[in-house]
Write a structure and sequence with these properties.
Layout (H helix, E strand, L loop, with lengths): L2 E3 L5 H10 L11 H6 L4 E5 L5 E9 L4 E9 L8 H15 L4 E6 L2 H6 L3 E3 L5 H10 L2 H4 L4 E6 L2
Parallel strand pairs: 4-5
Antiparallel strand pairs: 1-2, 2-3, 3-4, 5-7, 6-7
């Protein structure tokens, strides 16, 4: 399985894959404008025809902290390691860019713990709480999502 940087022709597929999981509360809704603005931050796994099977992105909070966002894998491609490969690619990108810490908010406890992340209280990331308040306050009320962090330096 090969993870690569997304390109402009992937925008609609990235947004559609990400937003497929938004009604379940697994991802936040993303627009094509958001995807375009973060295109260099997205990594994808493709199917044999070049279509997007999975995606992940980074979203900077400060020069030292970055969030892993928009982790999504097509349902028919789940359970075979794509999520782990995408997380590893996001972590590698964060390291290359010099971030000291990578964090994520997710329901996927086992996946993030298996990838070497530690649990952390969401309160450790007040910047994230502030963004939730601006984007979607219902995210703050979701009790099942957990925060995970990984020191990179």
């Amino acid at each position: 399985m090969h993870v690569e940087r997304a390109n402009e022709t992937d925008l609609q597929a990235l947004v559609a894959l990400n937003n497929r999981f938004a009604p379940l509360g697994l991802t936040l809704v993303r627009s094509e404008e958001f995807g375009y603005a973060h295109l260099a931050d997205y990594r994808v796994i493709r199917d044999a025809d070049g279509g997007v099977l999975g995606c992940v992105a980074l979203d900077e909070y400060s020069p030292s902290i970055v969030e892993l966002i928009s982790l999504a894998v097509s349902p028919d491609a789940q359970g075979i390691g794509h999520g782990k490969a995408l997380i590893a690619a996001a972590e590698q990108l964060a390291r290359v860019r010099g971030y000291a810490e990578l964090f994520a908010v997710s329901y996927s406890d086992e996946l993030f713990l298996a990838c070497g992340f530690d649990r952390a209280p969401l309160s450790a990331f007040p910047e994230k709480i502030s963004r939730y308040e601006k984007i979607d306050t219902t995210e703050l009320a979701v009790g099942e999502k957990h925060c995970f962090t990984k020191r990179l330096s």
